[in-house]
Amino acid sequence: MSETDTPDMADEETGFESQEGALIEELLHDVPLEVSVELGRVSMNLREIAARLGPGSIIPLNKMTGDKLDVRVNNRLVARAEAVAVGERCGIRIVEIVEAGEADQS
Question: For a Cys staple, 80 with which of 48, 61, 96, 103, CB 3.0–4.6 Å?
């Protein structure tokens, strides 16, 4: 067999990698992920909670109105968003995708 008769191994590997990637994507397609959006935080001691927590209570958080909200997937920061109304429900509009280095620091 001459050199020109042999199949190109690089093409076969690329095809295999494409198939493997598609199989992995198909396997992981239905893996559930927890997506959470953090409106804000506040630290309170037990006495403050007991005195302030009840029907009609308003508890100020650390974020200002209009601040971007943190979007987390499995507790990892992945994006920032703004709150929007979607009919009768709350929703978010993604305004920024967080870079890997910044996500690791959060």
Answer: 96
pLDDT at residue 15 in the model: 59
Q: By residue range, what is the domain housing residue 71?
A: 33-105
User: Considering its fold, how many domains does the chain have in total?
Assistant: 1
pLDDT along the chain (106 residues), means of 10: 47 63 83 92 92 90 92 95 94 93 65
Q: Which pair of structure tokens corresponds to residue 72?
A: 């987390």
Check: pTM over 0.85? Answer yes or no.
Answer: no
| Rounded distance between C-alpha atoms, residue 63 and residue 76, angstroms | 19
Does some domain include residue 10? no
Q: Residue 105, Cα to own-chain centre: how many angstroms? A: 15
In a domain, 3, yes or no: no
Report which secondary-structure segment, H or E, holds 38. strand 35-38
Structure tokens at 104: 């690791």
